[in-house]
Amino acid sequence: MRTKSMIGIAVAVLTLVGLGAALAAQPRPHLPPQEPAHRPPPNHAPTLPPPPRGQFGEPLPGLTAQQLADFAAGREEFENVETPDTGLGPIFNNTSCAACHTTPAVGGASAIFVTRFGRVVNGVFDPLADKGGSLLQQFAIDPLVQEVVPPEANVVAHRITTPLFGLGLIEAIPDDAIRDNARHFKPDGVRGRVSTLTDVTTGQTRVGRFGWKAQQATLLAFAGDAYVNEMGITSRFFPTENAPNGKTNLLAIFDAFADPEDEVDPVTNKGDIDTAADFMRFLAPPPRVPRTRSADAGEMVFHQVGCAVCHTPMMQSGPSPVAALDRKPVWLYSDLLLHDMGALGDGIAQGTATMREMKTAPLWGLRARPVYLHDGRAPTVDAAIRAHDGEAGRSRENYHRLGPVQRQQLLEFLNSI
C-alpha cells in the first residue's frame, strides 16, 4: 500500500498553486458568511474527538468487536491526508475525505463545493470529457497542470458535499424496494424513476442510490469514485488517472506513481478504498431529537403538503450478514429515485440521470447541515422548500399556502428527524 505521511508546509504551498486564479474565475452559490463557499485544502488532518453516545458520527449500535475495529481503521483512513508522495494528484479537489465531510462530525456535510461543467447543443449534454469534464479538479501539484473550465462549456454547476451518516443502512436496502417506490402511484404529477447502472465493483446490474444523481450503487464504488476524482488516487476499480483538461501527455510528466496507486494489502485483502467504505458502512444514521407537540403536528403537515410523496419516511434494509444492518428500519426520508426537478436541476447529465433530474435527497439529520440544496444556494430549510420545482412544484405551492403556525410546525418536524 502507499506510504502514509503528514503533509508538510512545503506541500501545502505546492498544492495551492493556481488556487487564486481558479477561484476568482468561478461563480459562487449563496452561502453564509461564517462558512466560506470554498477553502484551500488543509495542511493537516482534522482532529475531532470521538463523538459522545447518541451524537453524530458514532458507529452503528450492535457492531461486533471486529466491525468496530474496521470502523476505527476506516475513520483513520478517512482522515488521512494525502500528499504527492502518497499519490495525490496531479489534479485534485482536496487532500482527505474528512476535509470535506466535517459538519457536525467526521462523515458529515459541508459547504465546500465542487464544480461541474459541460456543453449543451440542441438539448444534448456533452460532458466535454476530452477537456477534462464533467468534473473540474480545482487544485494541482504544479501550475502547468492547473485545470480551468474550458471556453467550450456553456453549463457550469456546483455541488456541495453530502453527509454520509447511515449510508450502510441505505446500501442494505434491496434494489427491489427502490423499484417498488417507482411503481407506486404518486399524485400531483410526481413520477420518479430508478437509476439502473452497472456496478463497477461487481459487474452486476444494480440500482443507484449514492451521489446527487444516484450514480453509484455500492459504497465501495462510491469510495473508489471519490478517491480518483477528488484526490487523484487510482484503484483497481478506477485505474485511470484524470488528465488535466484532457491533456494525457502531461500525465507522463507529473504522475510519478504507477497506476493503480491504491494497492490491496495481502494481509487484510483491502485497499484504502475498502477501508474508507468500512467507515461509511458502519457509520450510524443521524440521531433523532425528542419530539415536541409542535413537531408532531408538523409531521402531519409534512404529509398533507405532499413532501412524503418523494421524501419517503422509512424503508427497510434487507437480509445482511452484518447484524447491525440486517432487516432494520431506515428512516431516511427519501425514495432514492430520480425526479425531474425543473429549474432546480443542475444542468449536468451524469450516470443515467438527465440534466434536470436529481435524486431525492435524504432528509435525516437535516438540522446539522450548513446549507441546503445541491449547490448550497439555500441558507435555510424554508428557502430550500421555496426553491423546489418540476415534479415538486405542487408541494411547493401547498407550502406557500400554509399559515405561519403550520409552516413553523413543519420546520420543527424537519429539524427533529
Account of the protein in words:
- By secondary structure, the chain is of the alpha+beta class.
- It folds into 2 domains: 225 residues, no CATH class; 151 residues, Cytochrome Bc1 Complex, Chain D, domain 2 (Orthogonal Bundle).
- It is 25% helix and 10% strand.
- It has 12 helices and 12 strands.
- The strands form 5 sheets. Strands 2, 3, 4 and 6 form a 4-stranded antiparallel β-sheet that branches.
- α6 packs across α8.
- The longest helix is centred in the first third of the chain and has 15 residues.
- It is globular, with a radius of gyration of 21 Å.
- The two termini are 40 Å apart.
- About 12% of the residues have low confidence.
| Dominant shape | globular
Distance N terminus to C terminus?
Answer: 40 Å
Helix tally equals 12
Mean pLDDT: 90
Topology:
Layout: H1 9-15, H2 19-24, H3 65-79, E1 91-92, E2 113-121, E3 124-126, E4 135-136, E5 139-140, E6 155-160, H4 167-171, H5 175-183, E7 196-198, E8 205-207, H6 219-231, H7 251-254, H8 272-281, H9 293-304, E9 315-316, E10 329-330, E11 338-340, E12 357-359, H10 381-386, H11 393-400, H12 404-414
Antiparallel strand pairs: 1-5, 2-3, 2-4, 2-6, 7-8, 9-10, 11-12
